[in-house]
């Protein structure tokens, strides 16, 4: 056997062993060997190495079915950390995150009229603030950035984002040079769909994450791999056309879905309706309240406000057909819905589910699950973390392990 092959096998075994400890720990060495059909000596050597490096802890003796009690080992998530950065069109966040993608501390900044390089400088400002509080950069395994738009994840370059005016910005190189650590850059929706699978334990080989919030987007996993397209521009669900003579979109096209169901679109519709003197509890005195949030909108839906209910029906009327298109194109096992406009709105969820049940090809919609995101409001930060963790530990996305 060539040395290269041997090294590859060692690395594969190492990642299988670490993955087993992470998923099933506390676990004994002999259990790991049995579970993966790897020799006990190989397991013992690898585990010893990982204990020395600080990725695995040795615990006390576990339960025994007779004879000597085995020593248990478990994954050690807190000896190292990573920095997650989430850039969205309205807020930039940076966080210290442990190796189980748990957020330890965070800094954030509202994006107000920041464009191009200024956005990256703002992110650097947040990372600097985090580092001032926690200076042990030698324990940082890297920085991972989730950003909306078309991202070249191999080169770590944001190719295009119209709202933030990002064009060919080499985020990876900028951050790597400044902080001297490895840097990952990924499209935010791809990051979240990865996190749903890894952290949210959604064990589907074919799944689609759809968000409706500030914007509308999707992340698609087919055959356990993220679907990117040739240049990283796949899954632009928000820019699929729903009306060829509709509203002009920033992307240059007309009638893109995003302009009908995103929060800015919904907000615009509420304000217009109020100015036309339509009665709603969102504006008890006639004018719009100073700060209207998605939460206030959901509250109005729950209270049966006719304007809020009408708008929800309208959103469902666009989103339902959009999902049917996705389902008929990709035949996923699950659609996971996230974003502040969907997460708290049971009426919208119910409408969309029943639309899909009626209109998608029966063969495709049969065993399909339509569920809400398990990652909550921190989905993007957790998403960025899981991109890094998957690569750093070479955790397989597939439920089938390499033997
Ligand atoms: Zn568009």
Automatic annotation (TrEMBL):
SUPFAM superfamilies: Actin-like ATPase domain, Winged helix' DNA-binding domain. Keywords: Carbohydrate metabolism, Xylose metabolism. The keyword Nucleotide-binding does not apply. It comes from the Bacteria. InterPro entries: ATPase_NBD, ROK, WH-like_DNA-bd_sf, WH_DNA-bd_sf. Pfam families: HTH_24, ROK. Transmembrane segments: none annotated. Transcriptional repressor of xylose-utilizing enzymes. Belongs to the ROK (NagC/XylR) family. This is ROK family transcriptional regulator. It comes from Paenibacillus terreus.
């Amino acid at each position: 056997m060539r040395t290269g092959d041997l090294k590859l096998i060692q690395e594969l075994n190492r990642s299988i062993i670490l993955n087993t400890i992470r998923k099933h720990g506390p676990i004994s060495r002999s259990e790991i060997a049995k579970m993966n059909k790897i020799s006990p000596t190989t397991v013992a050597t690898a585990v010893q190495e990982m204990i020395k490096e600080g990725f695995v802890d040795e615990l006390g003796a576990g339960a025994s079915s007779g004879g000597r009690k085995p020593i248990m080992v478990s994954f050690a998530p807190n000896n190292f950390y990573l920095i997650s950065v989430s850039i969205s069109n309205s807020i930039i966040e940076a966080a210290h995150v442990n190796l189980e993608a748990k957020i330890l501390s965070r800094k954030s900044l509202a994006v107000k009229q920041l464009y191009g390089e200024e956005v990256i400088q703002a992110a650097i400002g947040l990372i600097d603030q985090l580092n001032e509080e926690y200076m042990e950069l030698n324990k940082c395994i890297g920085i991972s950035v989730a950003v909306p738009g078309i991202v070249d994840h191999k080169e770590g370059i944001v190719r295009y984002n119209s709202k933030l005016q990002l064009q060919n910005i080499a985020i990876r190189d900028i951050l790597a040079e400044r902080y001297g650590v490895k840097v990952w850059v990924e499209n935010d929706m791809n990051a979240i769909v990865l996190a749903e699978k890894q952290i949210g334990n959604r064990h589907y080989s074919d799944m689609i994450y759809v968000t409706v919030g500030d914007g509308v987007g999707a992340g698609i996993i087919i055959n356990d791999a993220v679907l990117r397209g040739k240049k990283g521009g796949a899954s632009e669900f928000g820019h699929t056309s729903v009306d060829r003579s509709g509203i002009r979109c920033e992307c240059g096209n007309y009638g893109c879905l995003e302009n009908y169901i995103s929060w800015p679109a919904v907000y615009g519709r509420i304000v217009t309706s109020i100015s036309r003197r339509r009665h709603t509890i969102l504006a008890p005195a006639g004018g719009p309240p100073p700060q209207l949030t998605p939460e206030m909108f959901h509250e109005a839906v729950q209270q049966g406000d006719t304007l809020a209910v009408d708008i929800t029906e309208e959103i469902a009327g666009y989103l339902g057909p959009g999902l049917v298109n996705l389902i008929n194109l990709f035949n996923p096992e699950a659609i996971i819905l996230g974003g502040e406009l969907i997460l708290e709105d049971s009426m919208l969820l119910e409408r969309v589910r029943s639309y899909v049940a009626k209109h998608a090809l029966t063969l495709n919609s049969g065993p399909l699950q339509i569920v809400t995101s398990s990652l909550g409001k921190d989905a993007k930060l957790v998403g960025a973390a899981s991109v890094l963790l998957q690569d750093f530990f070479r955790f397989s996305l597939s439920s089938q392990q390499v033997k």
